[in-house]
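Subject: two folds for Thursday's group meeting

Dear M.,

Sorry for the delay on this. The cluster queue was jammed most of the week, so I only got both jobs back this morning. I'm pasting them in the order they finished. Each block is the input sequence followed by the predicted structure tokens. Could you check whether the formatting survives your parser before we put anything on slides? The first protein is the one we discussed after the seminar.
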Amino acid sequence: PMTPLPILLIHSAAAWAPDAPRYWPKYGGSRQVRLLDGAWRYGFIDGWDSGFDSMNASFRPSDGATPNMTSVPSCMDVVAGGAGGYLGPRGVGLFRTSFRSPAAGSAVRLQFQSCSFYCRVWVNGREVGDHLAGGYVAFALDVPADALSPDGGGENELFVLADNRFNATTAPMHTGGDFWHYGGITRSVELHAVPEAGPLLWRAHVVPSSSAVEAEQPDGAPAAVDISLVLSGVEGGREELKGQGELGGKAESGGAVGGSPRCGGGAACPAPVYYFSLAFDGGEAVARNGTASGGTVRLEGVPVPDAKPWSPDAPHLHTLTVSMGGQSVTERFGLRRFGVDKATARLTLNGEVAKLVGWNHHTQWPVTAASPTDEQLDADIALLRKGGANLVRGAHYPHDPRWLDRLDEAGILFWSETLGPAVSVANTKDWAFFMVHQKRQLSEMIDNAINHAAVFAWGWFNEGPSDHPEACPAYGACSALARARDPTRFTTWADDHKTSGACYEHASLVAFNDYPGWYSSKSPRVWDGFAAAVAEGTTASGRHTVGKPMMISETGAGGVYEWGDNATASKWTLQYQSAVIGEDVDVALANDRISGISLWHFYDFKVDNCGSTWPCHGRPGQENGTHCTYDHPPPTTFEELRRLGPPNCTAIAPTFRPGGTNHKGVLDFWRRPKPAFAMVAAKYRAATGRPTASESAIIVQ
């Protein structure tokens, strides 16, 4: 077996309180936030067809048995250390823990960084909400003061139901896709104390000024920011979440944060004025004030003292602390500007034409599956840097905020997209249900990721029905929402219909998926033709592609890690993989009409190609008993992994997904490199001049 690469850990050491979230933002003053992570009581109702109705209105937490213990966050369906080919359980997880009330009369807000697929939540037996907009996106639920223990500091029971069964009603965003959808409370749970009086300062969204990708831009990097203070007010004793865009705000007379409260005689009250201060990079606080519209106070063109640009080569990061009414929120952001070069239609960063190079990246790790440790995140970032990457596409759903923090620090650009492979035409035309939750998912993704300097594109509908004109209004609705919320990033999707795509008028970045030399006998030179069609306006979208940057969002080839010494370079050997990938990369780097390439995939990963038709009635499926014959069982703990090492496959049937695994990674699932890794890394570094991980440093203000 090949030797694993040495790992360089790069995540900057931040001063996190012991029970505070280990990701941005930070909170202070009366803005109390703590994690509810740790040991929870747990029970599981096994079975795809158990008959349990997760939406049953009469279900109560007292009906759910939780006889076992589990860790939160974790995946309730990880088996065999996450190795491919082992069928994980589908069913309903029941989770129970307790927390102390922050103060008598106070309400709280619960933020789940993910709860997958479908989630319902109760506090002290009272249901406070559910979530249907996808299991990989963060969401918040508000708990009114009268649902909590009446005594300040009293104990409260939190009960969570998580259903990981594919179902168009409970999990409409989980339409399928060629990867294992993990379930459970897979990321952190936060408890936010709500102030007894006045609005809650929820977040401060910070984007560079004068940086809309489809507008005229000043030269160079920005030195000022637009700030949106997202506030929440109290109505009827219940905290109401105030998002932006379609989520709007509610109002209450005498200090509301949105809407139009009524005063004497039914006239609209004057908009209340909010007083706060801004402090950049821990410097002097400057007093400001403003009025709110839709729950948001917006400030434009605020200069950043000693402004330094963010770029892959010098990822400078600034902080902004907003203080209001005894609360404070500290956000981190970067100053950079994405755009399009008029002469070449190439993507630009801070006014300079850029070539983006990197990989697609799912959230699957050995032992922990979709709930990685900080150390595992650090290790993958170090490998990406060693690979010369300045780009990661977040396949195929919103990613962990800890991961985005690390990408910001490493100077690696990130394509952030909503969950949604295998979206159908019928889905895109379902405006009463599917599209409601799709737009909510997109808005929640933007809420959680908008401050990350690395994010350069908002995406949706991977390999969706873009060749059907009747689906285009759904693409347009997503694009309109994203542009309204944040015009500083590109809007896009990974399109496998390529020149047959009919919806590109709604994209500001055109991206194609294709696998020449793997799924077809075509030469990788086909990419030259695709780039020409986009530049010349000869796709099914006509002139709507002209002047827009084009990139390769997926391409690659499979290679079984243990198949490296074959006499011939036949399909599935590492020699064949390297040959195909090498040609793909060479074409992308040589073509001046191609702005970037994200290879599929960074590492091998577990699949579930049955998708939403699980459990593959009438056919075995790619997860059911198809795993490799290993030289020892896959380790299920870190201790076993250290002691036994990764398992080696001794026999495998080279089918569509051998051993229930997608083998297109340049690393195997256990992060052992294949020959393609070093080959691609050399090509990437030669093209971009990007240093190796050991030669570069993170710059954080």
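Second protein, same layout:
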Amino acid sequence: SLGSSESLQSKDKRKPRVIVVSMKLPLSMSAKEGDGEAGWDFKVDENALLVQACTSSVLDKDFEVIHVGCLPKEVAPEEQDDISSELMEKFNYMPVFLGDDLKEKYYNSFCKQTLWPLLHYLLPLSTASSGRFKQDEWTAYMKANRIFVDKLLQFLRPEEDYIWIHDYHLLVLPALLRKRSYKVKVGLFLHSPFPSSEVFRAFPKREELLRSFLTADLVGFQSFDYARHFLSCCARQLGVEHEMDKGSIALKYFGRKVYVTISPTGVQPSRLLECCSWNDTVWRKGELMNEYKDKTILLGMDDLDPFKGIELKLHAYEHILDMHPYLRQSLVLIQVVNPPRSHSKEMEALQLELRECVERINNKYGSDKHTPLVWLDRSVPHYERIALYSIADCTIVTATRDGMNLMPYEYIVCRQGPDASPGVRRSTLVVSEFVGCSPSLSGALRVNPWSVESVSDAMLQCISMSPQESMLRHDKHWKYITRHTASHWASSYLNNLKKACANHSSMKFYGLGLGLDSFRMVALDVNFRRLDEVSVNEAFRNSQSCVFLLDYDQTLMTTTSFSNQPSEEVLMVLGDLCASTSNTVVIVSGRRAQDLEAWFGGVKNLGLIAEHGYKFWPPGGDRWETHLQVEPKWHDVVLPILEHYVECTDGSYLERKESALVWHYQDTDPDYGSWQAKELLDHLDSVLANLPVEPSKGNGIIEVSPQGATKGQAIEVVLSWTRKVRDDVDFVFCVGDDRSDEEMFKAVEHVTYSPHMPAEVFACTVGAKPSQAPYYLDDPNDVLDILRQLSKKK
């Protein structure tokens, strides 16, 4: 609304703003009570992670925080403007309105039935599964994310604000936002797990989601396992490899660096300790202690969800009671089950199984005076939750796959209690190794939840643990939790986001591609620009001696593995350029000499450079000249090594050139191929230390070639030859497309500043991508067009 936008713009502009975007705003709403009263009462959920994380004094000092998300309930259109103004004024909250129908399809159907299982490693193999991909639900997901974009753009200051997007409900939001505003500063944090590439690759819209992740500046995960899976997906699905950058993980993606951070969330101990002193909490704790006097209490507190492993916990507990009769009257498991967030056939089957399990255990081992399994199938108020944590001797988490799960942290804090409370602080934990918090809790007993024996053994170990050991384990956890709080997590993440966006001002951004699966953000140096044809034509017209240095593959021709030969059009344009006596035209290629001679031998006065400078056919010449001396014996050393790697690496092959040997691995498994390439480079470095050859890594290749065999050296040879047979060069046009051509661009850059060769130089790469060249052309067709124009000038 206009009112809410104005109120946003009138806020203090000196402090940078963080816009925290989540599917739901962290608040509760209820209809106003009283006769004739209409409208809603809103209350901030002080226990929500994002509220605790973003209301610390550290964050308040550095940022103004605005929350964006949906309300718990949809409201009538005529109420929306007033509610937006009220929430912005009171809480700095900006609501997004989706409507009941869209929210049902977007949240309850796609997010909960399709994305949630996928991210938890579950594929919908059954045709009856509610998790099968449906196009109309994906359309609803996209539409909902676009509504979030529209809301953000009402008040966003793209070059100043930081946008922090949360969780799987909004995974396409970074790309949709970036398409509308190139310079936005975007962080994305995934609270859920991220599956292995073998699971994720089965998702029909995998590329759309991955490319959207990569339009963010910083991507956060709860644990290294999930980050590792994401990096593997990027390598396997998109061919984007990661690198280490001063201790950070970075992905180079079209000139931008996308950083990946592992940031485990935390709790705010001060808030929980304050709750421990509430009257309701003290009363409920006393009541529970009286009720379970002289009992050993195990506690489970989970959402009703197939991935929480509640049934596995019950089986392990039943196993203890089966095998250890002496515990049947003294051991109690209190299991709190929060209501499900969505409904499905799988959920109904789980509820039925759990009910049967509870009845079986209590019928088998319960009595009028003792209930071994207390089943709380309801929402538990916060004070009761704190009270339950406070009295539990051991807490058990048996999730088969989960994000962070902060329940163990809350338990530790509540067992610590306020400073004034008497007694020794002790706690024990049984935690599934598949939960995000598991690596952080080194004092917990980590278990494979699928193994009933290992879970029951861990429970027994906790029950029988000495007071001193449980005290030491508790103390270790308490120290960790007080350092790694929710506010520490937020400030650390936002500082990393600031660093990730630090060079935005020195870059130019371009959007390429229309659909979400093809859209990518290209970042280029501010001085990098498209080649101006008018300037080139004018400089060429005023020149006396011109040199054209032309790469072949993907520059003059879009070559494929099926067709490498130049077209008739390319040969005709080259012939027209060579017809002028003032032009020196040279093809500079890595291809073999016999191939270039076969393809271009019919073009009169055309020069050829083969194998990156190893051989030179001068313009108007009649034979190849060799400008590098090659040690003949090195082939005998290198060839057996490369043949061994071809044998060991399925999909790789060997190419033999006169001057070089090339191992191609672009068609191998991405991970295995990369490992083998790294191993081969290390192997060759040690073997070739005393030989005048060097191995180099290219795009899917390892090439072993003589030292000095680069396109940069080749350019020196061409320019030296030109000075001998022609006047001083006053115009240089150099064009190429890949990493090997960067040496060529460096070499011609020296010509620009050379006092004995004052030439007008146009170095140009094909495609708008980071390069040593100051100019770019879009594709081989553009290169051919400009060469055609120049061929007609003289």
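Two things I noticed about the second structure. The first helix runs from residue 2 to 9. The radius of gyration is 33 Å.

Cheers,
T.
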